[in-house]
């Protein structure tokens, strides 16, 4: 993956950028017959369930307009990469067609959230919460609102937001230094990252059940897989601490985001199995984080999760049509980085939006996303979860 310091800013200053933002969404070049599911199939994993016993969930990395690196996207047709007239309206159209009860977005630009997405998007029945990443050291004089973050959008007809929590993992460590062994690696590899997470406590108005939802976008670099594991651990611990005591006994939780880790990663292992032997991971061989991490003794080399989680897309590879499943697809990089997890003793998967059809992305004219049909380099993950 390429470093995200390569920024393409529309307009030369903040005022010009805001003028352009106000014009967004008026592009008329997107396909009039666009269908977000044309090249993807719905996969039902059980019999039909009554609507009141299930909740729909989306997780989608939007590909922030400032992260269009020439190294990755320079050879693509620029017609489909244009933000105001193509990508922005096509993103909105995709989301409106796929709209779910709970929608988690990553790489959502702060300025655009404030001016567009926070106001009745994708319809007036939705409300949302958002947290912006802190300004990175390389940002210079660029406006802070150019920085992206993560958001959670909630269908108010179905769900009520009871509580929320915003987390910046680096700041969390410095503000709770007594809970950690402050080693050089912790300071230089983890504290300096601007990774954030958003946690919501929801009430299902139909069933009166309490649901907890998290959304995050972990640090991108494959040279920092140790950091991603520790960020995941902090996310799970924060979710546990966010829960009311009565909800921790039998939690109903959904964990979404771009984890920048595939199913072969140690992050995936921690989420799936609930435990990770740090002393058996090559990623931690040259790193030292001391004996204490968030008040947990890890001197024995064991890192644990407070939840029993399942991956929503676990069964998709068993379907022959989905053996080429990916969540991000570019000219140089294709992998599974985006995930939806859920507490498996309270929830189960009812339906999934499957992978992109192999016959489509194997075409000569399809050389990675974004393109005519897919406005981001990631695809939206969509699932229906039913209450057990």
From TrEMBL:
Q: Which branch of life, at top level? A: Eukaryota
Which InterPro entries would you find in this protein's record?
CCR4/nocturin_mRNA_transcr (IPR050410), Endo/exonu/phosph_ase_sf (IPR036691), Endo/exonuclease/phosphatase (IPR005135)
The scientific name of the source species is: Pichia sorbitophila (strain ATCC MYA-4447 / BCRC 22081 / CBS 7064 / NBRC 10061 / NRRL Y-12695)
**Descriptive protein name:** Piso0_002779 protein
A single Gene Ontology MF term assigned here is: 3'-5'-RNA exonuclease activity
| Matching Pfam families | Exo_endo_phos (PF03372)
Q: Where is the Endonuclease/exonuclease/phosphatase domain?
A: 91-378
